[in-house]
Write a structure and sequence with these properties.
about 220 residues; 2 domains; Endonuclease Iii, domain 2; Endonuclease III, domain 1; mainly alpha
């Protein structure tokens, strides 16, 4: 298969497996989504969903979150890891949303990435899921799958994102991001499939005999 043929197969098969993928982070609006994505760094979505109800019961909008002491936020989010850094970022980004954007999460990559704790991947998730702007958030898991499936040889997540955007049409990016995450978790995890075991890996490279070693971002 050529790279384009592999991409077409991946898109078709993932759409069959996950026709209507929902974002796994519980949220109600762009602000609660933004906070949940910040918390998800180096943490499972399941753990984030266990923590956010208590946090959002105290503050589910930028004004209320900016008024909370950092220590209060930190205590609630401690199970998510990196609590001191995340607590400071959440409180400060809330303050800046109030001061710079009238209390509304900005709908632009530039404005989002200017907020504390918000990198390109987090901004991409919010732009795609909250505002419907074509974006293809690439984390280490998607980076791994893209290499394993021969869709990219990117040395980092930025290069992999560039390659995937070239292969797939913009209207598919939002769903593909989620579909790849779900498939990776359920069928092609790092430890159980080394490029030889799962359905998509076998279909794309039926004669592959050696494990795939992906480039770490």
């Amino acid at each position: 298969m050529t790279r384009a043929e592999r991409a077409a197969y991946v898109r078709r098969r993932l759409a069959e497996l996950y026709p209507n993928p929902a974002i796994p982070l519980a949220h109600r609006d762009p602000f609660t989504l933004l906070v949940a994505v910040v918390l998800s760094a180096q943490c499972t979505d399941e753990r984030v969903n266990q923590v956010t109800p208590k946090l959002f019961a105290l503050a589910d909008n930028p004004e209320a979150m900016a008024a909370l002491p950092v220590a209060t936020i930190e205590e609630i989010i401690r199970p998510c890891g990196l609590a001191p850094r995340k607590a400071r970022a959440i409180r400060e980004l809330s303050r800046l949303i109030v001061e710079r954007h009238g209390g509304q999460v900005p709908a632009s990559f530039e404005a989002l990435e200017a907020l504390p704790g918000v990198g390109h991947k987090t901004a991409s998730v919010v732009m795609a899921q909250a505002f419907g702007v074509p974006a293809f958030p690439v984390d280490t898991h998607i980076h791994r799958l893209a290499q394993r499936w021969g869709l990219s040889r990117g040395r980092n997540v930025r290069e992999t994102e560039r390659d995937l955007k070239r292969l797939f049409p913009p209207e598919s990016w939002r769903d593909l991001h989620l579909q790849m995450i779900y498939y990776g978790r359920e069928h092609c995890p790092a430890r159980r499939c080394d490029g030889l075991s799962c359905e998509i890996c076998r279909a794309l490279f039926p004669r592959r005999r050696r494990p795939v070693r992906h480039r770490r971002p």
